[in-house]
Amino acid sequence: MTGKKVVIGGNWKCNGTKESVKELIETLNSAGDFPSNAEVVVAPTALHLGMAVDGLRKDISVSVQNLWKEPKAGAWTGELTVDLIKDFGINWAILGHSERRAYCGETPEIVGTKVKIALEAGMKVMACIGEQLSDREADKTMDVCKEQLDPIIAAVPSGAMDRVVIAYEPVWAIGTGVTATPEQAQETHEQIRAYLKTKIGEEAAQGVRIIYGGSVKGANCQELIKKADIDGFLVGGASLKPEFKDIIACSS
Ligand code: PEP
């Protein structure tokens, strides 16, 4: 890690009641000082965004989990466009999560379009990539990562790369309790950074935060964060629990 801030993202996915979200907000608000190099972002459901924006302490940013592939509000039933999201004071978007790729038909090209829309509107993005277990077993991890990365990189307007965080999330580790070992995660992060260098140059690639996601918990975050190319985490299940505070604290 260089002087980059560590990104700790909490993806609440499709979880939470009014009561549980209120409790989680109170837990985070009373968590004490965060490490000065931590950038903390949580992504509630669309229904809970207002509670989070109004209720969370101001050093926790709020993110959407998705946005619509057209920039302007209009006749897009059921969707959220970037202008509405920004009007709500939200500046982060998680894009290309493997669940949206798998269940909502989001192709690498659609993800690229959404990344472009978000960045052109001045937002920051956590763009998710990652391979299936069968890809890893066939030694195709980087082929898949490159295929997903290419439209993301191509979508970045000039000067906006510092608002892009790449979330490497091996699909076999998401929600399964199976975490990539620190060595496995580091190896792929290093390869992703090496690929970024070929695309955007050495200096820009060094500056990109590449965060790891996949069953990160209080118990395994310390070992993962020690690795040179792991610049933070995207956390699902554990971000709904008080242990999210421990994951934030491990960036100190
Ligand atoms: C995720 O949803 O991005 C994720 C990494 O989930 P989990 O931490 O539960 O594996």
TrEMBL record:
It catalyses: D-glyceraldehyde 3-phosphate = dihydroxyacetone phosphate. Keywords: Gluconeogenesis, Glycolysis, Isomerase. One of its GO terms (molecular function) is triose-phosphate isomerase activity. The keyword Isomerase applies. Its EC number is 5.3.1.1. Pathway: Carbohydrate biosynthesis; gluconeogenesis; Carbohydrate degradation; glycolysis; D-glyceraldehyde 3-phosphate from glycerone phosphate: step 1/1. GO terms for cellular component: cytosol. The keyword Isomerase applies. PANTHER family: TRIOSEPHOSPHATE ISOMERASE. Belongs to the triosephosphate isomerase family. This is Triosephosphate isomerase.
